[in-house]
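Entry:
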Amino acid sequence: MTDIDQQFAQAQADVQQLPERPGNLTLLRLYALYKQASLGDVQGEKPGFADIAGKYKYEAWAALKGTPADTAKQHYVELVESLKSGDAA
């Protein structure tokens, strides 16, 4: 396991232990970075009008299209660290 993979795995554990729940935009960013790091570019059909949450998740993930997995992992780790230190909400 590479160093970034270890940091990414630790960040996934750390995000579950945050003292307070991040805001919706931050949660979307976390989701999109996680999916891009884990699965690569967005997959599947864009959810329809009735699935608003699914649509936002899809769009957040799609915005990262072409981002390398290691770059997404690094951004995920940095975001979790900023949440842990209270710098982001």
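The mean pLDDT is 94.
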